[in-house]
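Lab notebook, bench 4. The sequencing result for the construct came back, and we need a structural model before the next group meeting so we can plan mutations. Quick request posted to the team channel:

Model the 3D structure of this chain.
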Amino acid sequence: MNKKIALMVYPNFSMQEIGNICSLFRWEYDSETVVFSSSLDTVNAEEGILIQPHKTYEEFNIEDYDCLILPGCSDVRDSIRDLKIKEFLEQFKDNDDFVIGAICAGPIYLAQAGLLKDRKFTNSLYVEMNEMFSFIDEKNIVYAPLVEDKNIITAVGSAFNEFAVAMARKVGYDCPDGIFKGIPKEWRESDYKVHLSAEGLREFTNEFREFLA
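Done. Here's the predicted structure in token form:
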């Protein structure tokens, strides 16, 4: 594996919907998230958080990444008219191997670029939008939390945990269903006392020696 995932961002993208997947890949599988956008200008997420892209779409090299992720978007009026997004995604039209995941409104960009022509998929758009957008094949929509068809995984916004797990498995990681189990109803103090390994303790003491008692 390349140990890198490519994340697309566009104005008003949902940080919340992709936070878990980026955290899962980083901390469970040591996979770096590289952020791509139409330019290197900061992008404002729907939560009001400013994100600085690492690279533009022109700098993308498929050989460097294990998958591509498209977050949802609360207002697609600007991004749906951004030809750089459409042109970037069109390169994957005949590729059935490279893993692509899109959540919430994210599949709209895949549809616009022709990637969902013969694929079953889901999204969080209103039914009327699915019926009226000329580039969406409404007959292929499955109104379900998550849909996997060949190399493409799509999910509704509320399935962000399931989306993360499905993407991890799709690229080849062994990922349990309950990885996002949260806080159990019954817990012990020992559950939250985590110790450094011998090597970790040596690194810690060397790095922070001047702050230690």
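The chain has a mean pLDDT of 96.
Will bring this to the meeting.
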